[in-house]
Amino acid sequence: MDPIQLLLEGVLDHVRPLTDGAPAAYIPELATADPDHLALAVVGPRGRIFSVGDDHIEFSIQSISKPFVLALALQEHGLDAVLQRVGAEPSGEPFNAISLEARTGRPANPMVNAGAIATSALVSGDDIDERTGRIVDMLSAFAGRSLWIDEGVYRSESETGFRNRALAHLMRSYGIVDGSVDTAVETYFRQCSILVTVKDLAIMAGTLAFGGINPVTGRRVVTEAIARDVLSIMASCGMYDFSGEWMLRVGLPAKSGVSGGLLAAAPSQFGVASFSPRLDEHGNSVRSTAVMERLSTSFGMHVF
Ligand code: DON
């Protein structure tokens, strides 16, 4: 076996005994995930992919969509216009908190739900389909293949997304979200329901790590400036109310999602992603977090 593959298998063996936590239950469709799934993928500068474990399993991207939709909003409007609608400060609060500035209603950052809904609402398009189409195209370019939406997860999210709807209505009252709240929120639910594998996530992280160029397709997806902006936000806000400790322990810009995915970018070196559905109290995957800690300490990946 390839030595890198063997090394990655060793990391999975190390975290496999961790069985704390449980798959997300607040979206019924996510509760049906096999809690034992475990996978890890790494992509290097020339697009070589190494993956181990359940690397063929597809799962919904959930909050890991947020940095890539931020990239799209930055591409369409530029940094200053985006910052008018959503801040760049870590909230120190859970992902679904009402993290809105008291006076302006501006959400703390684009990685918490409120900020992600505001960011998604910046994507141009006349209706849900047109906006979702743009988002799917952008995420597909990051992944280097055509991605699809899991309609079952979308329905499940839409049927239970009362809190996200409330956040969107609040932001609509402040003028942070324009137009139809339904369009904003359903587009956000659809972006969260895009299916990916751990390899897709590693390539998406790699595209950010390599300055906006997809290391597998060789295609430029976003400018270097946008890749840098997105990584900066991930570094300070990507792991919710664990972001500070994450930076201390792992030291890489990263993003997690409630289906158990987690990606991280080692600038100019590689993109990495891991998948395991059991979550901790922050909504981050227990084993995926342990995988990244192990990789970072064993291979000196901390950016500092
Ligand atoms: O907004 C939600 O509830 C989900 N669709 C996404 C949240 C999420 O993935 C938070 N991550 N840990």
Cofactors and ligands present?
A: 6-diazenyl-5-OXO-L-norleucine
Distance between the termini: 32 Å
Approximately how much beta-strand content do the residues carry? 5-15%
Instruction: Provide the CATH top-level class of the largest domain.
Output: Alpha Beta
Put simply, the count of helices is: 12
**Share of helical residues:** 40-55%
CATH superfamily heading of the largest domain: DD-peptidase/beta-lactamase superfamily
Shape descriptor reads globular
The whole-angstrom Rg is 18 Å
Strand order, main sheet: write it out: 2-1-7-6-5
Mean pLDDT over the full residue set: 96
Number of strands: 7
Number of structural units classed as domains: 2
Low-confidence stretches: none
How many strands, what sense, and barrel or not for the largest sheet? 5 strands, antiparallel
